[in-house]
């Protein structure tokens, strides 16, 4: 999701949470209450995910904030507990925060073109806690390693620090930028090589030719980003043969004859070409009809989007996950229709945008999409996680 409006909400939550984060503690042993011990690595077989030879259903929610907002480990526990209670198996989260001034939880500090990775309690040690908390509720993480948007740093910080320009697409082509991102990816991925709590690595949240400012070099096409995906996904595979790799994109098609924005290819993503890349294990798609100008019948437009991605999944015989979807009103009828279509179309899995919890330090970020445990959409998550598992046998 384009998180432009979140910064203010987060800023309201962070000061309280940061004070609480001083009180970090080790996780208690809760093996006896764990729904299922997290062991083994999730793999793919045709259009399915598998775990230890059995079908594994990828279903759950996004929580970009769990490793970013100064949560104590007991607050992380609460957040994952609320997600796990829906029947979730997976949570997608941000494994990045590129800052130019140290503040709160961050993973990389940039000064004068030099990046310093934060290994300490507000950095990678904090992410260790995220992984442990997720596992203690039987959950695995899909970890996204940078952002197309300027929330939590992301691509534009690399570009401005290393090229002195604001051409967003230099992220995909400038050799120094690619080397710096590969260095970050190497440190992050290598730390968790043998960690079954990681389900997959994702190259970027919603990569596009243009970022938040819209400024590009004018030279970016879908081929530019496909080439970058080939290089980065092969790079991760070269250091980590245990974990799956995906893109984290919105699943845009590149059909220039289409008059429909998410199908006509203007953002530099060709879902069909990218899904064919051998080092990409599964496809990802997002679904925000109202943000994409699909206002005439957002529910039906989303039904068609899901069916088209299920068709791509079948054509290429690889799993596809609707890993973000959301509306801010009409949630019950919209999610009911979309969840039913996921099940009937055969789409492999889904993760709603986004999970919410009431924590000791206050509510987690609410961007209007957030589903807290007492919201009416929460029982739908429960119902359709069970239905997806039942479909998968
Ligand atoms: C960064 O560059 C500025 C201006 O050249 C300088 O004042 C500052 O000390 C440098 N910071 C570091 C950490 O090197
Ligand atoms: C775009 O590509 C052309 C041709 O390779 C090159 O001359 C030009 O410098 C590029 N523009 C930018 C802003 O990088
Ligand atoms: C997108 O990729 C598919 C599969 O490689 C290809 O057939 C199609 O021509 C591409 N779209 C464009 C506009 O190049
Ligand atoms: C909610 O759905 C109803 C019926 O489908 C529709 O008439 C109404 O415009 C929708 N409201 C919003 C805010 O999308
Ligand atoms: C859910 O619970 C929170 C915290 O107790 C409360 O502030 C909020 O009003 C409740 N929302 C609903 C829809 O009941």
TrEMBL record:
Instruction: Tell where it localizes.
Output: Secreted
**A Gene Ontology molecular function term of the record:** mannan endo-1,4-beta-mannosidase activity
Q: What is its EC number?
A: 3.2.1.78
Please provide one cellular component term from the Gene Ontology annotations of this protein.
extracellular region
Q: Which InterPro entries match?
A: GH, Glyco_hydro_5, Glyco_hydro_5_CS, MAN-like
Signal sequence annotation: 1-19
Query: What organism is recorded for this protein?
Result: Wolfiporia cocos (strain MD-104)
Among the record's GO biological process terms, what is one? mannan catabolic process
Where is the Glycoside hydrolase family domain positioned along the sequence? Answer: 60-356
UniProt key word Signal: yes
Gene3D superfamilies, sorted: Glycosidases (3.20.20.80)
The identity of this protein, by name, is mannan endo-1,4-beta-mannosidase
Which enzyme type, at the first EC level? hydrolase
Protein family (similarity comment): Belongs to the glycosyl hydrolase 5 (cellulase A) family.
Pfam families in UniProt:
Cellulase (PF00150)
Reaction(s) catalysed by this chain's protein: Random hydrolysis of (1->4)-beta-D-mannosidic linkages in mannans, galactomannans and glucomannans
Q: Which domain of life is it from?
A: Eukaryota
Respond yes or no to whether keyword Signal is given for this record. yes
Q: Which UniProt keywords apply?
A: Glycosidase, Hydrolase, Secreted, Signal
